[in-house]
Amino acid sequence: MKGKELLNVALGVITSIGGFLEVGSMATSAAAGADFGFRLMWVIVFSTLCLIFLIEMSGRLAAVSKRTLVDAVRERFGFVFTIIPRSLELLVNLLVLAAEIGGVCLALKIVTGIPVAAWAIPVGLLIWIVLWLGTLEWLENTTAILGLMTVAFVVAAWKLHPDPHEALRGLIPHGAPHDAARYWFIAVSIAGSTISPYMFTFYSSGAVEEEWTEESLGANRMTAIIGMGFGCLMSIGVLIVSAMIFSPKGIHIDSYEQLAVVLSPALGRWGFPLFVGSLGVCCFGAAIELALSTAYILGQTFGWNWGENSEPRNGARFAATYTAIVILGALLMCTGIDPLKLTMFSMALTAVILPAVVVPFLLLVNDEHFVGEHRSGWIGNTVVVVVVLVASVIAIVAIPLELAGGS
Question: Is pLDDT of 144 > 70?
Fold first, then answer.
Protein backbone atom coordinates (compact mmCIF):
# COMPACT_ATOMS: atom_id res chain seq x y z
CA MET A 1 0.00 0.00 0.00
CA LYS A 2 1.12 3.54 -0.75
CA GLY A 3 1.79 6.09 1.97
CA LYS A 4 -1.42 7.98 1.25
CA GLU A 5 -3.43 4.77 1.41
CA LEU A 6 -1.89 3.92 4.77
CA LEU A 7 -2.98 7.31 6.06
CA ASN A 8 -6.53 6.48 5.01
CA VAL A 9 -6.57 3.78 7.67
CA ALA A 10 -6.97 6.66 10.17
CA LEU A 11 -10.57 7.01 8.98
CA GLY A 12 -11.21 3.48 10.20
CA VAL A 13 -9.49 4.12 13.49
CA ILE A 14 -11.67 7.14 14.30
CA THR A 15 -14.74 5.16 13.21
CA SER A 16 -13.60 2.45 15.62
CA ILE A 17 -12.75 4.75 18.54
CA GLY A 18 -15.42 7.38 17.98
CA GLY A 19 -18.16 5.00 16.93
CA PHE A 20 -17.29 1.65 18.46
CA LEU A 21 -15.89 1.96 21.98
CA GLU A 22 -18.01 4.79 23.32
CA VAL A 23 -20.80 5.17 25.83
CA GLY A 24 -22.92 2.49 24.14
CA SER A 25 -20.22 -0.16 23.95
CA MET A 26 -18.96 0.63 27.43
CA ALA A 27 -22.42 0.45 28.96
CA THR A 28 -23.59 -2.67 27.16
CA SER A 29 -20.32 -4.58 27.56
CA ALA A 30 -20.07 -3.65 31.23
CA ALA A 31 -23.70 -4.65 31.87
CA ALA A 32 -23.12 -7.93 30.03
CA GLY A 33 -20.06 -8.76 32.11
CA ALA A 34 -21.67 -7.79 35.43
CA ASP A 35 -24.92 -9.71 34.82
CA PHE A 36 -23.75 -12.73 32.82
CA GLY A 37 -19.98 -13.01 33.10
CA PHE A 38 -18.34 -14.02 29.83
CA ARG A 39 -21.51 -15.53 28.34
CA LEU A 40 -22.32 -12.60 25.99
CA MET A 41 -18.85 -12.22 24.52
CA TRP A 42 -20.01 -14.03 21.37
CA VAL A 43 -22.45 -11.20 20.60
CA ILE A 44 -19.58 -8.69 20.45
CA VAL A 45 -17.63 -10.94 18.08
CA PHE A 46 -20.52 -11.73 15.72
CA SER A 47 -21.66 -8.09 15.67
CA THR A 48 -18.11 -6.95 14.90
CA LEU A 49 -17.81 -9.46 12.06
CA CYS A 50 -21.01 -8.02 10.58
CA LEU A 51 -19.69 -4.49 11.06
CA ILE A 52 -16.39 -5.31 9.34
CA PHE A 53 -18.29 -6.43 6.24
CA LEU A 54 -20.57 -3.37 6.31
CA ILE A 55 -17.73 -0.88 6.76
CA GLU A 56 -15.76 -2.50 3.95
CA MET A 57 -18.84 -2.43 1.73
CA SER A 58 -19.53 1.25 2.42
CA GLY A 59 -15.93 2.18 1.63
CA ARG A 60 -15.96 0.06 -1.54
CA LEU A 61 -19.22 1.65 -2.70
CA ALA A 62 -17.76 5.12 -2.16
CA ALA A 63 -14.41 4.35 -3.79
CA VAL A 64 -15.85 2.70 -6.91
CA SER A 65 -19.04 4.70 -7.51
CA LYS A 66 -17.78 8.04 -6.12
CA ARG A 67 -21.10 8.22 -4.25
CA THR A 68 -21.87 8.19 -0.57
CA LEU A 69 -24.29 5.60 0.78
CA VAL A 70 -27.10 8.16 1.05
CA ASP A 71 -26.46 9.50 -2.47
CA ALA A 72 -26.53 5.99 -3.92
CA VAL A 73 -29.75 5.03 -2.11
CA ARG A 74 -31.47 8.19 -3.34
CA GLU A 75 -30.33 7.57 -6.92
CA ARG A 76 -31.26 3.88 -6.92
CA PHE A 77 -34.55 3.96 -5.00
CA GLY A 78 -35.75 7.55 -5.29
CA PHE A 79 -36.18 10.43 -2.89
CA VAL A 80 -39.43 9.24 -1.27
CA PHE A 81 -37.98 5.83 -0.39
CA THR A 82 -34.81 7.45 0.95
CA ILE A 83 -36.81 9.45 3.49
CA ILE A 84 -37.91 6.30 5.36
CA PRO A 85 -34.55 4.92 6.55
CA ARG A 86 -33.08 8.41 6.91
CA SER A 87 -35.92 9.52 9.21
CA LEU A 88 -35.35 6.47 11.41
CA GLU A 89 -31.63 7.19 11.48
CA LEU A 90 -32.20 10.82 12.47
CA LEU A 91 -34.36 9.81 15.44
CA VAL A 92 -31.85 7.24 16.67
CA ASN A 93 -28.93 9.60 16.01
CA LEU A 94 -30.49 12.23 18.26
CA LEU A 95 -30.98 9.77 21.12
CA VAL A 96 -27.50 8.30 20.77
CA LEU A 97 -25.91 11.76 20.46
CA ALA A 98 -27.62 12.79 23.68
CA ALA A 99 -26.22 9.64 25.33
CA GLU A 100 -22.71 10.46 24.05
CA ILE A 101 -22.94 14.02 25.37
CA GLY A 102 -24.13 12.45 28.61
CA GLY A 103 -21.03 10.25 28.61
CA VAL A 104 -18.72 13.25 28.40
CA CYS A 105 -20.76 15.00 31.11
CA LEU A 106 -20.52 11.92 33.32
CA ALA A 107 -16.74 11.87 32.97
CA LEU A 108 -16.71 15.49 34.11
CA LYS A 109 -19.19 14.77 36.92
CA ILE A 110 -17.05 11.92 38.23
CA VAL A 111 -14.08 14.27 38.45
CA THR A 112 -15.81 17.42 39.69
CA GLY A 113 -19.02 16.27 41.38
CA ILE A 114 -21.01 18.80 39.33
CA PRO A 115 -24.27 17.24 38.00
CA VAL A 116 -24.54 15.96 34.44
CA ALA A 117 -27.26 18.46 33.48
CA ALA A 118 -24.98 21.37 34.38
CA TRP A 119 -22.29 20.16 31.98
CA ALA A 120 -24.60 19.46 29.01
CA ILE A 121 -24.58 22.95 27.47
CA PRO A 122 -20.81 23.58 27.92
CA VAL A 123 -20.02 20.15 26.42
CA GLY A 124 -22.42 20.77 23.53
CA LEU A 125 -20.75 24.14 22.91
CA LEU A 126 -17.28 22.56 22.85
CA ILE A 127 -18.46 19.90 20.37
CA TRP A 128 -19.88 22.63 18.15
CA ILE A 129 -16.67 24.69 18.25
CA VAL A 130 -14.60 21.67 17.24
CA LEU A 131 -16.99 20.91 14.37
CA TRP A 132 -17.02 24.54 13.25
CA LEU A 133 -13.24 24.98 13.25
CA GLY A 134 -11.95 21.48 12.53
CA THR A 135 -11.28 19.50 9.38
CA LEU A 136 -11.98 15.82 8.82
CA GLU A 137 -8.29 14.88 8.83
CA TRP A 138 -7.63 16.81 12.04
CA LEU A 139 -10.59 15.19 13.76
CA GLU A 140 -9.45 11.72 12.62
CA ASN A 141 -5.90 12.06 13.85
CA THR A 142 -6.63 13.82 17.13
CA THR A 143 -9.40 11.49 18.25
CA ALA A 144 -7.53 8.37 17.14
CA ILE A 145 -4.39 9.27 19.11
CA LEU A 146 -6.23 10.28 22.28
CA GLY A 147 -8.50 7.26 22.07
CA LEU A 148 -5.57 4.87 22.28
CA MET A 149 -5.86 5.15 26.06
CA THR A 150 -8.73 2.64 25.78
CA VAL A 151 -6.04 -0.02 25.49
CA ALA A 152 -6.13 0.24 29.29
CA PHE A 153 -9.18 -2.06 29.29
CA VAL A 154 -7.26 -4.81 27.51
CA VAL A 155 -4.27 -4.37 29.81
CA ALA A 156 -6.57 -4.55 32.84
CA ALA A 157 -8.30 -7.66 31.50
CA TRP A 158 -4.93 -9.35 31.01
CA LYS A 159 -3.70 -8.39 34.50
CA LEU A 160 -6.84 -9.83 36.11
CA HIS A 161 -5.95 -13.28 34.66
CA PRO A 162 -9.38 -14.56 33.59
CA ASP A 163 -9.81 -18.30 33.20
CA PRO A 164 -8.95 -18.80 29.49
CA HIS A 165 -11.25 -21.80 29.10
CA GLU A 166 -14.20 -19.96 30.62
CA ALA A 167 -13.49 -16.91 28.45
CA LEU A 168 -13.28 -19.05 25.31
CA ARG A 169 -16.65 -20.62 26.15
CA GLY A 170 -18.06 -17.09 26.04
CA LEU A 171 -17.31 -17.04 22.32
CA ILE A 172 -19.78 -19.89 21.73
CA PRO A 173 -23.43 -18.79 21.28
CA HIS A 174 -25.75 -20.13 23.94
CA GLY A 175 -28.90 -19.15 25.76
CA ALA A 176 -29.46 -17.29 29.00
CA PRO A 177 -28.45 -18.95 32.30
CA HIS A 178 -31.13 -16.86 34.06
CA ASP A 179 -33.38 -13.86 33.36
CA ALA A 180 -33.77 -14.51 29.64
CA ALA A 181 -35.48 -11.17 28.96
CA ARG A 182 -32.55 -9.23 30.42
CA TYR A 183 -30.01 -11.48 28.67
CA TRP A 184 -31.45 -10.90 25.21
CA PHE A 185 -32.08 -7.20 25.82
CA ILE A 186 -28.39 -6.71 26.62
CA ALA A 187 -27.48 -8.90 23.63
CA VAL A 188 -29.38 -6.73 21.15
CA SER A 189 -28.11 -3.58 22.88
CA ILE A 190 -24.58 -4.81 22.22
CA ALA A 191 -25.51 -5.48 18.59
CA GLY A 192 -27.06 -2.02 18.24
CA SER A 193 -24.06 -0.29 19.81
CA THR A 194 -21.72 -2.16 17.46
CA ILE A 195 -23.61 -2.11 14.15
CA SER A 196 -24.55 1.58 14.24
CA PRO A 197 -25.89 2.94 10.91
CA TYR A 198 -24.29 6.34 11.44
CA MET A 199 -20.89 4.65 11.16
CA PHE A 200 -21.59 3.60 7.55
CA THR A 201 -22.78 7.10 6.65
CA PHE A 202 -19.78 8.75 8.28
CA TYR A 203 -17.34 6.29 6.72
CA SER A 204 -18.66 6.49 3.16
CA SER A 205 -18.95 10.28 3.36
CA GLY A 206 -15.38 10.53 4.63
CA ALA A 207 -14.16 8.28 1.80
CA VAL A 208 -15.83 10.49 -0.82
CA GLU A 209 -14.59 13.66 0.87
CA GLU A 210 -11.04 12.27 0.85
CA GLU A 211 -11.48 11.26 -2.82
CA TRP A 212 -10.90 7.53 -2.53
CA THR A 213 -10.55 5.57 -5.79
CA GLU A 214 -10.44 1.91 -6.76
CA GLU A 215 -6.77 2.00 -5.80
CA SER A 216 -7.94 2.57 -2.23
CA LEU A 217 -9.78 -0.75 -1.99
CA GLY A 218 -6.85 -2.52 -0.36
CA ALA A 219 -6.51 0.18 2.28
CA ASN A 220 -10.28 0.13 2.73
CA ARG A 221 -10.24 -3.58 3.48
CA MET A 222 -7.40 -3.17 5.98
CA THR A 223 -9.18 -0.21 7.55
CA ALA A 224 -12.33 -2.25 8.14
CA ILE A 225 -10.48 -5.19 9.64
CA ILE A 226 -7.94 -3.30 11.77
CA GLY A 227 -10.21 -0.45 12.85
CA MET A 228 -13.21 -2.56 13.77
CA GLY A 229 -11.02 -5.34 15.16
CA PHE A 230 -9.41 -2.78 17.46
CA GLY A 231 -12.81 -1.66 18.71
CA CYS A 232 -13.92 -5.26 19.23
CA LEU A 233 -10.85 -6.00 21.34
CA MET A 234 -11.51 -2.97 23.52
CA SER A 235 -15.17 -3.95 24.03
CA ILE A 236 -14.17 -7.47 25.00
CA GLY A 237 -11.72 -5.94 27.46
CA VAL A 238 -14.55 -3.97 29.07
CA LEU A 239 -16.71 -7.10 29.32
CA ILE A 240 -13.92 -9.20 30.86
CA VAL A 241 -12.97 -6.56 33.43
CA SER A 242 -16.62 -6.06 34.40
CA ALA A 243 -17.14 -9.84 34.65
CA MET A 244 -14.08 -10.19 36.89
CA ILE A 245 -14.84 -7.22 39.14
CA PHE A 246 -18.63 -7.02 39.41
CA SER A 247 -20.08 -10.44 38.58
CA PRO A 248 -18.56 -12.40 41.52
CA LYS A 249 -19.99 -9.81 43.93
CA GLY A 250 -23.44 -9.88 42.32
CA ILE A 251 -23.22 -6.17 41.47
CA HIS A 252 -25.53 -5.01 38.67
CA ILE A 253 -24.66 -1.84 36.77
CA ASP A 254 -27.36 0.70 37.59
CA SER A 255 -25.32 3.87 36.93
CA TYR A 256 -22.18 4.90 35.12
CA GLU A 257 -20.64 6.06 38.38
CA GLN A 258 -20.24 2.40 39.37
CA LEU A 259 -17.87 1.92 36.45
CA ALA A 260 -15.47 4.59 37.69
CA VAL A 261 -13.57 2.01 39.75
CA VAL A 262 -13.62 -0.80 37.21
CA LEU A 263 -9.96 -0.38 36.21
CA SER A 264 -8.56 0.34 39.68
CA PRO A 265 -8.17 -3.28 40.92
CA ALA A 266 -5.90 -4.06 37.97
CA LEU A 267 -4.22 -0.72 37.31
CA GLY A 268 -4.10 0.81 40.78
CA ARG A 269 -4.00 4.59 41.00
CA TRP A 270 -3.92 4.88 37.20
CA GLY A 271 -7.24 3.07 36.86
CA PHE A 272 -9.48 5.98 37.76
CA PRO A 273 -7.94 8.64 35.46
CA LEU A 274 -7.67 6.16 32.59
CA PHE A 275 -11.34 5.25 32.89
CA VAL A 276 -12.47 8.87 33.08
CA GLY A 277 -10.19 9.82 30.17
CA SER A 278 -11.35 6.90 28.03
CA LEU A 279 -15.02 7.64 28.70
CA GLY A 280 -14.65 11.36 27.99
CA VAL A 281 -12.50 11.07 24.86
CA CYS A 282 -14.42 8.22 23.24
CA CYS A 283 -17.83 9.76 23.89
CA PHE A 284 -16.60 13.11 22.62
CA GLY A 285 -15.31 11.45 19.44
CA ALA A 286 -18.59 9.59 18.97
CA ALA A 287 -20.56 12.81 19.47
CA ILE A 288 -18.47 14.51 16.76
CA GLU A 289 -19.07 11.57 14.43
CA LEU A 290 -22.80 11.46 15.12
CA ALA A 291 -23.27 15.18 14.54
CA LEU A 292 -21.32 14.99 11.28
CA SER A 293 -23.16 11.86 10.18
CA THR A 294 -26.50 13.59 10.75
CA ALA A 295 -25.37 16.59 8.71
CA TYR A 296 -24.14 14.23 5.98
CA ILE A 297 -27.51 12.43 5.93
CA LEU A 298 -29.59 15.58 5.50
CA GLY A 299 -27.15 17.27 3.15
CA GLN A 300 -26.96 14.27 0.84
CA THR A 301 -30.68 13.50 1.02
CA PHE A 302 -31.70 17.03 0.01
CA GLY A 303 -28.78 17.75 -2.30
CA TRP A 304 -27.15 20.50 -0.20
CA ASN A 305 -23.49 21.40 -0.21
CA TRP A 306 -21.81 19.27 2.42
CA GLY A 307 -18.34 18.55 3.75
CA GLU A 308 -16.43 19.01 6.98
CA ASN A 309 -13.38 20.20 5.02
CA SER A 310 -15.31 23.12 3.55
CA GLU A 311 -15.73 26.49 5.24
CA PRO A 312 -19.08 26.68 7.11
CA ARG A 313 -20.17 29.59 4.91
CA ASN A 314 -19.82 27.33 1.85
CA GLY A 315 -22.16 24.76 3.38
CA ALA A 316 -24.44 26.82 5.58
CA ARG A 317 -27.23 24.23 5.78
CA PHE A 318 -24.71 21.48 6.52
CA ALA A 319 -23.29 23.54 9.39
CA ALA A 320 -26.78 24.47 10.58
CA THR A 321 -27.70 20.78 10.75
CA TYR A 322 -24.86 19.73 13.00
CA THR A 323 -25.46 22.84 15.09
CA ALA A 324 -29.13 21.95 15.56
CA ILE A 325 -28.55 18.29 16.41
CA VAL A 326 -25.89 19.19 18.99
CA ILE A 327 -28.22 21.74 20.61
CA LEU A 328 -31.08 19.22 20.76
CA GLY A 329 -28.82 16.52 22.18
CA ALA A 330 -27.50 18.85 24.87
CA LEU A 331 -30.99 20.03 25.77
CA LEU A 332 -32.16 16.43 26.10
CA MET A 333 -29.45 15.82 28.68
CA CYS A 334 -30.49 18.97 30.53
CA THR A 335 -33.84 17.33 31.31
CA GLY A 336 -32.21 15.04 33.85
CA ILE A 337 -32.92 11.84 31.91
CA ASP A 338 -30.97 8.83 33.20
CA PRO A 339 -27.92 8.51 30.88
CA LEU A 340 -27.57 4.75 31.39
CA LYS A 341 -31.23 3.98 30.63
CA LEU A 342 -31.12 6.29 27.60
CA THR A 343 -27.99 4.54 26.34
CA MET A 344 -29.32 1.00 26.69
CA PHE A 345 -32.68 1.88 25.12
CA SER A 346 -31.02 3.77 22.24
CA MET A 347 -28.71 0.86 21.48
CA ALA A 348 -31.60 -1.63 21.42
CA LEU A 349 -33.67 0.71 19.25
CA THR A 350 -30.76 0.91 16.81
CA ALA A 351 -30.98 -2.86 16.36
CA VAL A 352 -34.69 -2.52 15.50
CA ILE A 353 -34.09 -0.15 12.57
CA LEU A 354 -31.12 -2.04 11.09
CA PRO A 355 -33.03 -3.88 8.32
CA ALA A 356 -34.51 -0.63 6.95
CA VAL A 357 -31.02 0.82 6.63
CA VAL A 358 -28.97 -2.23 5.70
CA VAL A 359 -31.17 -4.03 3.13
CA PRO A 360 -31.08 -1.17 0.54
CA PHE A 361 -27.36 -0.87 1.22
CA LEU A 362 -26.84 -4.57 0.42
CA LEU A 363 -28.72 -4.21 -2.85
CA LEU A 364 -26.41 -1.34 -3.84
CA VAL A 365 -23.15 -3.17 -3.15
CA ASN A 366 -24.39 -6.06 -5.28
CA ASP A 367 -25.47 -3.80 -8.17
CA GLU A 368 -23.02 -3.69 -11.11
CA HIS A 369 -24.23 -0.18 -11.96
CA PHE A 370 -22.63 1.11 -8.76
CA VAL A 371 -19.73 -1.22 -8.02
CA GLY A 372 -19.03 -2.88 -11.36
CA GLU A 373 -16.99 -6.03 -10.87
CA HIS A 374 -16.50 -5.28 -7.18
CA ARG A 375 -19.74 -6.81 -6.00
CA SER A 376 -19.99 -8.35 -2.54
CA GLY A 377 -19.40 -12.05 -2.05
CA TRP A 378 -21.92 -14.52 -0.68
CA ILE A 379 -20.14 -14.86 2.65
CA GLY A 380 -20.36 -11.16 3.49
CA ASN A 381 -23.94 -10.93 2.25
CA THR A 382 -25.00 -13.94 4.32
CA VAL A 383 -23.32 -12.79 7.54
CA VAL A 384 -24.85 -9.32 7.30
CA VAL A 385 -28.37 -10.54 6.50
CA VAL A 386 -28.44 -13.17 9.25
CA VAL A 387 -26.97 -10.98 12.00
CA VAL A 388 -29.06 -7.92 11.15
CA LEU A 389 -32.38 -9.74 10.84
CA VAL A 390 -31.86 -11.86 13.96
CA ALA A 391 -30.81 -8.79 16.01
CA SER A 392 -33.82 -6.81 14.82
CA VAL A 393 -36.35 -9.54 15.57
CA ILE A 394 -34.93 -10.19 19.04
CA ALA A 395 -34.90 -6.44 19.75
CA ILE A 396 -38.57 -6.09 18.81
CA VAL A 397 -39.40 -8.80 21.35
CA ALA A 398 -36.87 -7.85 24.05
CA ILE A 399 -37.50 -4.09 24.31
CA PRO A 400 -41.16 -4.36 25.50
CA LEU A 401 -40.18 -7.09 27.97
CA GLU A 402 -37.36 -4.96 29.38
CA LEU A 403 -39.61 -1.90 29.63
CA ALA A 404 -42.30 -3.95 31.35
CA GLY A 405 -39.76 -5.44 33.73
CA GLY A 406 -38.29 -2.06 34.56
CA SER A 407 -41.63 -0.35 35.16
Answer: no
